Amino acid sequence: MKLIRDTWLLFSWIMGQTLRNPIWAMIGLFQPLCYLFLFAPLLQSVTGVPGFPTGGALTVFTPGVLVMMALFGSAFTGFGLVAELRSGFIERLRVTPLNRLALSLGYLLRDCVVLLLQSLLLIDIALPLGVHINPAGLVLTLGLLILLALCLSSCSYALALLLKDENALSSLLNTFSLPLFLLSGITLPLTLAPPILRLLASFNPFAYAVNAARALFIGHLASSEVIQGYLLIGLLALLSILWVTRTMQRASE
């Protein structure tokens, strides 16, 4: 009960801070919307190419945009924690009887809620454009996005606690985020890629997340892509939460 109470108290306060300044959450939608309106129409001419997934250009592309939003939105949440470390806010939390796991979960839940709201808004915008979504698949896609947010935000917070510097954190995240993005099949399905890129993408967990989201959108709820994506991202999310919690505990010792 103490864990739940502490998590809720911290989440309520952090979420309140976010709602008082929602402009940053809205800015996080700008890049995905640019891709949706300015890039997705370019795919209309390649939907008939052998290897292009079924469902139409927008139905294939929109799940990738959702994963991209999780990738770039959640992976950079650590910058806020660096600022709070410098201000002494985290240090003040550490000396309280607040549960250390709750300290991590409060921030992670805020990130999940923000990503869910952004995703629902993006989907509402995409539906009139011609995107077709299986209702049950949509619910499972949102669950997959939550796991992605837990995984990426946890890693970002753990790195922020270890590095304690925006420049170092920025360099590290930018180094890894671009190849992960390019090898995930977000912009173009990996079925169109040459064998060497497909081989490299097989080591990228976000490629499995994109494939799972695309399968869910067209109603393939129990496909191998969905099972692989959920198992892999779920395992990574669990390991990442354990990592950030342990890092938080060590930092307070």
TrEMBL record:
<keyword id="KW-1133">Transmembrane helix</keyword>
<dbReference type="Pfam" id="PF01061">
    <property type="entry name" value="ABC2_membrane"/>
</dbReference>
<keyword id="KW-0812">Transmembrane</keyword>
<dbReference type="InterPro" id="IPR000412">
    <property type="entry name" value="ABC_2_transport"/>
</dbReference>
<feature type="transmembrane region" description="Helical">
    <location>
        <begin position="21"/>
        <end position="40"/>
    </location>
</feature>
<feature type="transmembrane region" description="Helical">
    <location>
        <begin position="60"/>
        <end position="83"/>
    </location>
</feature>
<dbReference type="GO" id="GO:0140359">
    <property type="term" value="F:ABC-type transporter activity"/>
</dbReference>
<feature type="transmembrane region" description="Helical">
    <location>
        <begin position="227"/>
        <end position="245"/>
    </location>
</feature>
<keyword id="KW-0472">Membrane</keyword>
<feature type="transmembrane region" description="Helical">
    <location>
        <begin position="175"/>
        <end position="197"/>
    </location>
</feature>
<feature type="transmembrane region" description="Helical">
    <location>
        <begin position="104"/>
        <end position="127"/>
    </location>
</feature>
<dbReference type="InterPro" id="IPR013525">
    <property type="entry name" value="ABC2_TM"/>
</dbReference>
<dbReference type="InterPro" id="IPR051784">
    <property type="entry name" value="Nod_factor_ABC_transporter"/>
</dbReference>
<feature type="transmembrane region" description="Helical">
    <location>
        <begin position="139"/>
        <end position="163"/>
    </location>
</feature>
<feature type="domain" description="ABC transmembrane type-2">
    <location>
        <begin position="23"/>
        <end position="251"/>
    </location>
</feature>
<keyword id="KW-1003">Cell membrane</keyword>
<keyword id="KW-0813">Transport</keyword>
<comment type="similarity">
    <text>Belongs to the ABC-2 integral membrane protein family.</text>
</comment>
<dbReference type="InterPro" id="IPR047817">
    <property type="entry name" value="ABC2_TM_bact-type"/>
</dbReference>
<dbReference type="GO" id="GO:0043190">
    <property type="term" value="C:ATP-binding cassette (ABC) transporter complex"/>
</dbReference>
<protein>
    <recommendedName>
        <fullName>Transport permease protein</fullName>
    </recommendedName>
</protein>
